[in-house]
Protein 1
Amino acid sequence: MVWAAAKLFRRQGYSGTGLRDILAASGAARGSLYHHFPGGKEEIGAAAVTAAGSLVTETFQELANLSDSPADFLRRYTDLLVRWLEASKFRDGCPITTTLLETTPGSAAITAAGRAVFDDWSGVMEMLLARHGWPAERIAPTATAIIAGLEGALMLARVRGSSQPIRDTAEALCALLDGGLPGSS
Amino acid sequence: MVWAAAKLFRRQGYSGTGLRDILAASGAARGSLYHHFPGGKEEIGAAAVTAAGSLVTETFQELANLSDSPADFLRRYTDLLVRWLEASKFRDGCPITTTLLETTPGSAAITAAGRAVFDDWSGVMEMLLARHGWPAERIAPTATAIIAGLEGALMLARVRGSSQPIRDTAEALCALLDGGLPGSS
């Protein structure tokens, strides 16, 4: 039910998705919805942000372990992102952004779920930058800039119906990452 | 009416805003809504994206004319953005992103309005980079990365309830802009 909700929120937004849509897409019974989510739609929204965010965290972690450098990580992730986005014909964006923009800061539960996801994502990026010798004071800002760039690029790509904004943003961020170490530029 | 709609969409999303809310916030009569917007809510959505996007374009243009460099432009714009966001207690994000994420690519009218706005924004950035001697092949990707970074950072700032993601992303982008010219790093 949580995955069905996450998919619908990603395509059509949180407000635009009714409990009825979630039940229809998941095949679950109405009673089980209220049993598992006594907090109703807001609780499903928070659970969907957590579940979808965790899946991205796992992907980040796997790619970070495979990568030779932060720029190599970004290229690998960008390739995945472009493949997913093109397979969905630019309908599936970030599984958490739309919901967060509609509900933050109004919903405390969904806002808290979003913050925890961004903490996890930043944590993976920060560890990767630290492992590759980035100076401590530049790690957090660079991790944030990577996540912000990817989120913004995904939005631009959906609106444009093209992967080019993702490729362009990744290219610019890789220039920053490749040239980012003191003495390496 | 268009401005009232843009403000509501920015805070609570497109689907979460009813025509009734727009009428109440604008003080307009229902008849005038259908007179000016025979296409109903979708037409108001497209008009709100166009109007709010144009205001940002004008701000970009003014700051670009005042700025000594692309990094100087980005610092000036970031200061404005942080002031607006803090004044709204992190409720007002980008006036067009939420609506676009909820309706793209489903609504052709709103998608087209969004593309035109991003073309305008990119145009200002590209002219600024060209004026400061950026090589032709790096202009479009860098302009896209700046817009993507700002959009993503604005979203992160709302979720975090802090301006730090905007400051961090701007700092990283300024490092890219300051070090971005061949021979200047």
Protein 2
Amino acid sequence: MDDLAQVRRVDGEALTALKGELQGQFGNRYSDNTSVREQHGHTLTWTGNQPPDAVVFAQSTEEVSQIVRLCARYKAPVIPFGTGTSLEGHVNAPFGGVCIDLSMMKRVVAVHPEDLDCVVEPGITRKELNDYLRDTGLFFPIDPGADASIGGMVSTRASGTNAVRYGTMKDNVIALTVVMANGDIVRTARRARKSSAGYDLTRLIIGAEGTLGVVTEITLKLHGIPEAISAGVCPFPDIDACCNAAIATIQSGIPVARMELMDKIGVQAVNMHSKLGLPETPMLLMEFHGSDASVKEQAERFGEIAEDLGGGPFTWATQAEERTKLWQARHDAYWACFTLRPGTKAIATDICVPISRLADCVNETHKDIADSRLVSPIIGHVGDGNFHCNLLVDINDGDEMQRAEGFLERLVQRGLAMEGTCTGEHGVGQAKMKYMGEEHSAATLGVMRTIKQALDPDNIMNPGKLVP
Amino acid sequence: MDDLAQVRRVDGEALTALKGELQGQFGNRYSDNTSVREQHGHTLTWTGNQPPDAVVFAQSTEEVSQIVRLCARYKAPVIPFGTGTSLEGHVNAPFGGVCIDLSMMKRVVAVHPEDLDCVVEPGITRKELNDYLRDTGLFFPIDPGADASIGGMVSTRASGTNAVRYGTMKDNVIALTVVMANGDIVRTARRARKSSAGYDLTRLIIGAEGTLGVVTEITLKLHGIPEAISAGVCPFPDIDACCNAAIATIQSGIPVARMELMDKIGVQAVNMHSKLGLPETPMLLMEFHGSDASVKEQAERFGEIAEDLGGGPFTWATQAEERTKLWQARHDAYWACFTLRPGTKAIATDICVPISRLADCVNETHKDIADSRLVSPIIGHVGDGNFHCNLLVDINDGDEMQRAEGFLERLVQRGLAMEGTCTGEHGVGQAKMKYMGEEHSAATLGVMRTIKQALDPDNIMNPGKLVP
């Protein structure tokens, strides 16, 4: 299989000309100001800043198409940008080029309550969308933690705490409008809830991280806001018991909405940060959606399963205020981590394994954290076998950073050895490209490369990401 | 966008040589006997028989790869075959070539009860799989009616009666092994329940109808057999009331497992065929899965919704025997149709529209059936907006066949005009290729063609299907 086309950094007169054309067309929605460029060349992780040559704030699909056509003429890289909350260097511009900032495209184009769907522009964030939907009785469930843009969530195939019930982005997108590498505007599917009419271009673009096209409109599935919610926390003697309870819960058909694992050090962190007084042992944080009777029954049945497996007591509530208090631990988890090592930075990473291997994987990872003299709570979307390490590191300590890198490498190897994946929901970006050849066979990667080459022959769409 | 490569029918000495090589390698698992070839060149519909030049009964992924490599050398068409239950001419061989019959590949490679998944070969049928799983407490839910092979169900992106609860094939496949056009064996993903590591090749192959590769192994999601099931029938005054009840049911968050619409003539047919005495008016057939308490509650809540909308009484039961009796109408529907016009053939077709348009679409279709002097019950997976017409036609009556063809054409146009798709679950095959250019824009079809060309440059994989 051939390599992808060599990416050429546009510079000199060509760059001046390209920038001039963009500025002429987009006026004050164009910028090559250093601080704007740097703001668009960062991620939340420790990856270095790699700014684009210019940033354009697009307002419509047609404008995105114009920008991409122009870039195609110059063979200049195109990097789509939503909120910049991605974690693996997805929006860095290692070869410069033009960043298309989609944050001005945040219209809700249509809501169809009877069809339980809506059509939105990519720049709207999930919280903005849910605020907009509030009066309809509907909501968009996918919750990756950060208030990411819907376009970004499409592009990384995001999921989060309630994927166990509502699925991931791949399960909640009906259709997309995408600007391809040649500027063509492609609508991937119609608004019917299912179709067998041709290749699933929708799913091909979901998770493609902008390397095949720029998403400019999204038709999303919506769900009815549940009539009732019950939620609670349940301590367990160890990680194995947590995982066994999770498996038994799913096997028994309880339609759990959220089921989050928090390890002992995670609980210690939230106790310190939020003065919670939780028992410092691994726990599951649970949430159930349904009718009044159903969420009560689900919570009770989970409580019995937990007790059978040595866990409990399961403290749960249905009133909003009490529920919020019980779930405070989970909501505060990210910021609470820093109380474990004030002044450090967090390296957030994720892997995902078959749930039967989750306990082994978490236990081995705990041992590795200790052996590597690192500090990292583990928090997991246990219903999916997906978990996060949040490494708290002193990025100025070379020795520690080396130990952290060794740990991250082994974490992925451990996941892959257990039939897992190097990323369950964060995506590949720059940082996990080196694992693509281990996760996939040469033939599988070959197919990905063939598709990339065919649809983006000059390799201008977010180059240096995803496909090695 | 270029056209696909011209398909060359292999004949003369080349064909003799190809057949000789296959016979040499596969012995009595090779056949070019006319009746075997014709058996593999038919579908369940009225499309004519187009037999392949030879049929090989493969026993492993490696064998499939050998056959495809050989065919690639001769540029001979490759047509994968499961059970032959597809409805749109998917297994016809308009350019001859080699049919790979996968019916001997029906092993269950692994069942992972804790992960709720299994690994199977493509030739196993859904009923065979569920028989195999019976003692595990798990089941595979997708039910397209026919006892199709899992490989065929992957390839047509099948769904059926309980997609409203469990999704379609795209939602229930974790990973695939696929033999590509060059003979490469590609594993699309690992066994983790979700992943963001690269392009979604799994979903690209699902629904590709064998035009990109031959599926040789499937990792499927399984579900716990529900603790309890309630089911029943509910008559409504008209189609609008049925559809409004369906919409209200879904909006209210009742996790309905099956919700089938049967029109008045459909009810008349099952009354005649099975002596049921049902009220001859449109009805919904419902099924609920969950705990004992939950299925009771779901049925009661549906009953209230139905009553509010002028329907009912909703007759339901939880005991297996009574449930079966209530659902007998739906089970007998296909064969019961023929009592409406004994001696005729059925043309089964499907479209899918946003559920808000379903009542309009069905009502207009009823009028068209009457105006066209045709006979066709309408049965629908109403939770998805997907419905079927089962045209009962005298295929020797040229005038009637012409009216039927006009009707089928208008049915698709009507669906497309309502933001729907020309096929919700049957697939494109040969028969619906002519609609692909109406359903999708030239740019969208261009992307599909680019992918097909890139992955199958000689156009040997099931040519003459899906991509026009």
Protein 3
Amino acid sequence: MEKKPVISIIGGTGNLGTGLAKRLAVKGYKVILGSRSEEKAEKSAAELKRALGVDLIHGMQNQEAVRGGDLIILTVVQSAHEAALKSLKEDLQGKILVDATARIKFPNPKPPQPPSAPRRAQTLLGEGVRVVAAFQNVAAQSFADLEKELESDVLVCADDREAARQVIDIIEELGMQAYYAGDLDAANTVEGLTALLVNINKYNDIHHASIQVTGSE
Amino acid sequence: MEKKPVISIIGGTGNLGTGLAKRLAVKGYKVILGSRSEEKAEKSAAELKRALGVDLIHGMQNQEAVRGGDLIILTVVQSAHEAALKSLKEDLQGKILVDATARIKFPNPKPPQPPSAPRRAQTLLGEGVRVVAAFQNVAAQSFADLEKELESDVLVCADDREAARQVIDIIEELGMQAYYAGDLDAANTVEGLTALLVNINKYNDIHHASIQVTGSE
């Protein structure tokens, strides 16, 4: 059996980060939760370990988390996106960065301006990092409850198809369907879809809206 | 019981137009198929009437179709969008126009430039027409086979919520879920989603990809 990659989650103490950490750890992945504050990261990791009864989750300061991980997932709030990338640029070289960022303007979400957040990340980080966009449209809350089946599909965008493939395999191991949906420019629409989901939650009798892909095989 | 609106479908002899006409007619709607060619419209209508055994579908030249309809659905090919709107502008005044247009560049679909096609339609037609974006993401082929349950949800965008409500009610009568997803600017993302679906069909083991909204009530 191939060795599972160590997965580090930057900005990992938020809803999406801790939810992903849980789902990954119960599938046997070693997970490093990263935060700007080492203390906060360690506290979150300790809580998750206690809740799950597994020893696979560790907390570190973001930079250490990147160094310790094979595959890095970025789940910082949108306002911290650029600063986080700049501070982690050197340590990210040679790795896959999964960027979950969706830029949403509240209270009236509009389609975001191109280039997409993951495209901005790729440009800032350079060719040494393979950026993959994923998780923009999932309802973070749905990850938290392990008893709950995950109902959302994940649209995955990347310039590098092989990097996308690796990320899709991991997502599918977590019990979700994942679809390659185009390059990092296409991620602009995936971000926009998050804005539509915010509207759908607001205007229809539905909570935690996400999407599934339908079709025939 | 309220009288059902007469629904005219402009560019109605294509896959989406004839599919919608079938689904509407079996629910008791009177449908006018419009085409630039009256002969072509009449031929399509006659075929559908024969296939369905109902007398509710008529074929007319586009302008006559608009005059005869209470609610107009625009399903012309994207290259004919602007010209069709210009030629029908006067006759559309006072009506609801459902614009199904999604601008897709082949062979490599990218997120389309704003403003959205339905926003362009609203600007061109003026305030006397209430434009509603819908049906951008449905696989036209899925409408044709009446035995087949419709698996795609419909995202509906409009500046006028009441017009959106009327369109949502009709879509739900056809057996689909419809969700109000924002104003006509938001439709730019819905168009982009069509491009993502083209990519999803191309790169994954799936045909006629569309989307469903998931969530909890």
